[in-house]
Amino acid sequence: MAVLVFLLFCLCFSACPSQSAGSAAALEYKGEEAARGGNFNEAIYFFSEAIRVDPKFGRAYRARALAYESTGQYKKAVDDFAKALTVDPKDSESYLHRGSCLDELSREPEAIADYGRALAINPKDAQTYFYRALAYEKLGQPERAIEDYSRVIRLQPDSARAYTRRGLAREKLGSYQQAIQDFNRALEIRSDEAEALCYRGFAYLQLKNYGRAIADSQRALALNPTVARAYGNLADAYEKLGKPALAARARSRARALGEHR
């Protein structure tokens, strides 16, 4: 989401206004310049000054909200997006970003509502479907997450991450064969998708295919040696194969990385 915030700053505000230096638009422009340079606290100052000059300047509220989001000040961002949306209630990006901030505040039902509002305006935005799917996962609703990941895949057939996340949601439902199909597709698109390898290894583990579980987990660790779950997969597989020393070693590494089974 941080990359998206930066791109919005770059795309939406590219021309210097002709107004006087003290005008709201000129102050907003200074804020955008600061934001493009990564100086978000300075940007917030100029956006606040623009709002002080013109309290009904919706674009400045939106810009300040993006800056707050970039600095992790999610509650303030939510408040500013709300003010921006009173000026432009058809701004799908503001709903998307407010939803993301609500997600960060663990307010998933409200986030999902905002993602829905964004999609009512722009029903072909794959990113919004993806974020809503993640929110459904957090709420323990994998069926709804699968529906949204499937929408992402229809819009972006080469999204390895969407296949990986849909596979994970299917794992949570115990649909391991379907999950493996999704992980296979993700790995066809991106062979270095360590997350897909790790989750596929877990699916093979549940299907008692311990050789493949070990192979996938080792490949995942070769790509990213900090994937705790892959060590957990190895430990479980080695235990099933009657190799307690290897299992203990893998379990120790998993616990050191925060994995507890």
Tell the overall outline. Answer: elongated
Domain module tally: 3
Fraction of helical residues: over 70%
The CATH level-2 architecture of the largest domain is identified as: Alpha Horseshoe
- The number of helical segments is 15
- Using the coordinates above, name the CATH class of the largest domain: Mainly Alpha
Q: Which segments are poorly predicted (pLDDT under 50) over 5 or more consecutive residues?
A: 13-18
Alpha-carbon distance between the two ends:
31 Å
Rg calc: 23 Å
Q: What kind of sheet is the major sheet?
A: none
Number of strands: 0
Looking at the structure, the CATH topology of the largest domain is Serine Threonine Protein Phosphatase 5, Tetratricopeptide repeat
Approximate strand percentage: under 5%
Please trace the helix and strand order, writing H or E for each element.
Answer: HHHHHHHHHHHHHHH
Q: What's the name of the CATH homologous superfamily of the largest domain?
A: Tetratricopeptide repeat domain
Query: Which structural class fits the helix and strand makeup?
Result: mainly alpha
Overall mean pLDDT: 92
